[in-house]
From TrEMBL:
Protein name in UniProt: Nickel/cobalt efflux system
Family the UniProt entry places it in: Belongs to the NiCoT transporter (TC 2.A.52) family.
Lineage: Bacteria, Pseudomonadati, Nitrospirota, Nitrospiria, Nitrospirales
Claim: Protease is one of the keywords in the record: no
Gene source species: Nitrospira defluvii
Transmembrane segment boundaries: 45-67, 79-100, 141-163, 170-193, 205-226
Length: 235
């Protein structure tokens, strides 16, 4: 069905997509979102929607650039990466502000006879109604799209130097995206483990994990902004 060269390119794209999920800025952004939902199910769903948004943006930008035979200028690529740094700082500050101002705490209750734990705020709602994982898909989707836009320049350099046609280019982006989705689902599950474990230890341990996620996101975001601002680049 595929010639050996195409199979090699697609395999490479899939492996690089898996590896791409482990980038530090991806881990920092994901941790701030899943730290609010201390369950493996919610964390893997967040990873999936992050990867989906990332892939959709890469396909939109990559398909357009391939069709027009264009590349993203270095100055614009740096601007996109700087915007990701700003987003990481905002995500970290947003999580810290939410915990502090909305009086978040851990609360165990039942749905359909199944007990589970949720991050919960009586300051916002007097009862125990809350949204589940599928209702919080938009935020990680948009965050993934922002990361996809920032990473599109580097990906297109690889694509243009590897593929021999627009069909191979789109195929490469698709399998790269599938790899990144699977990678982010796995990363989400792994990163959820210390969060879930801290819930069993107690509120103080959970807040410490939350605090680490805040500091990591803010610190990495500031580092990205400084390095890009000084002309050193990030990726």
């Amino acid at each position: 069905m595929f010639d050996p060269h195409t199979l090699t390119i697609l395999s490479l794209g899939f492996v690089l997509g898996l590896r791409h999920a482990l980038d530090a800025d991806h881990l920092a952004a994901l941790s701030t979102v899943l730290a609010e939902r201390p369950t493996v199910q919610a964390s893997t769903a967040i990873g999936f929607f992050w990867g989906l948004g990332h892939t959709l943006m890469l396909l939109c930008v990559g398909g357009l650039l391939l069709a027009l035979n264009l590349t993203i200028p270095d100055t614009l690529a740096s601007l996109f990466e700087f915007a990701v740094g700003v987003m990481l700082v905002v995500l970290g500050l947003s999580l810290a502000r939410r915990i502090y101002r909305e009086q978040w705490h851990l609360h165990t209750h039942e749905h359909d006879g199944q007990p589970h734990v949720h991050l919960h705020s009586h300051h916002l709602k007097p009862d125990h109604a809350h949204g589940h994982w599928y209702q919080g898909s938009l935020r990680p989707l948009l965050i993934g799209m922002a990361h996809g836009l920032a990473g599109s320049a580097a990906l297109m350099l690889i694509v243009l130097s590897t593929v021999t046609g627009i069909g191979q280019g789109i195929g490469y982006i698709v399998v790269f995206g599938v790899g990144s989705i699977l990678g982010m689902v796995g990363v989400g599950a792994i990163l959820s483990l210390p969060v879930v474990y801290s819930v069993t230890v107690g509120p103080r341990a959970y807040w410490m994990v939350q605090g680490l996620a805040c500091l990591a996101s803010i610190g990495l975001g500031l580092l990205m902004m400084v390095r890009i601002g000084l002309g050193g680049g990030w990726s």
